[in-house]
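Structure ticket #2291
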Amino acid sequence: MEANVRRMEDFQDSNATLLTRLLNDLDAERARSERLLLNVLPQRIIDRLNDGETLIADRHVDATVLFSDFVGFTAISARLTPADLVAELNALFREFDAICDNHGVEKIKTVGDAYLAVGGLANMDGDAAVAIAETALEMISAVERRDSAKADWHIRIGINSGPIVAGVVGVSKFAYDVWGDTVNVASRLETTSEPDRIHVSAAFSDRLANSFVFEPRGTVDLKGKGAAETCFLLGRRGAG
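Resolution: structure written out below.
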């Protein structure tokens, strides 16, 4: 009888140990999945999905959009090996990510050599337009500091402020993305910018005229939008 009781106790202990290990493995896997999701979606969006929301689409009336890409990227990519190209882009984008995090700006995605970030999507300290301006200036500096024997990197940046829509699309390869005329104009400003310069809309420069220095560019033809008055962002007022 005592032997049977001991065997039963041993069996229960074994099951308890197995259950604890399975629960620990499950917690570790859940944490790993959460970390992977954070590389795709903001935490607040993950929380809403976990709460059962199936359609996430938000209007933001005052956001600031930044687009960037690298000058001569096609020629650079043809010259570098795939490993070198990915390593170079990874180093640059990691630095951009850190700059965005430092200013509370949200990186949305990269597409090839293009980088898209937005300020004003979530609660943040200070003005989203100021945060994006600081982010853009630091991105220019980061590229200028880049000491690479592989490629001579230069960047173009476009910035615009206004209303946008943000949401999650897709099922198997879902993505958090932004849409609207504000986004389109920011993209056009980037493509018509000059190497190592930050091309901004008049609405953006008017908003920050008291705290940043701008150089009027005059009228620029933006594809699909027509003629528009634009400026180059030079720096913060009073900066050495």
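Closing remark: Strands lie at 57-70, 106-111, 114-119, 155-169, 175-179, 197-201, 212-222, 226-236.
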